[in-house]
Amino acid sequence: MSNQCIVLVGMMGAGKSTVGKALAKHLSWEFTDTDHLIEHQTGVSIPVIFEIEGEAGFRRRESLALASFVGKERQVIATGGGIVLAPENRAVLQQIGAVVYLSASAGELYQRTRLDKNRPLLQGPNPRRKIEELLAARLPLYKEVADVVIETGRQPVYQIVNKISHALKLGHKPPAGTEQKATGTE
User: Which helix (H) or strand (E) holds 31?
Assistant: First the structure.
């Protein structure tokens, strides 16, 4: 792996920010969370952006934030869960560097996000069902862009970081059980 970026994709609650920070520290690279970048640029929270501009306005801002990483190096980037929805974003993701899909079951995602009021898409009457719907719609897109798929499950963050390092050949060989995307056959 060169010094290109590593981009973490996955559903809300999959651990992209937590794992991303640990991976960046492990590699001595910079870490950026695109949601935090957008909040910093606008001066308001993601729920406020959704309230004022709607999801479409947020997605435009998300695309601009992602595009700002083209040509950068030695960055670990945690993206918002819906970044894969736009075809142009999927192309940019693959241009930026290695894409790692952090996978988790709908049940795990619900447990991790159920008390978080900072997730506008989960503020309806049945957040568990919403997670299931979003995961079903996004899963093929995550798999389309992923160079590596890592199941987050209930393992410690350092194990996930090690699996990513091994899978991306950051000085290691892939450990047994690490699922890697087949080249050209999906």
Answer: strand 30-33
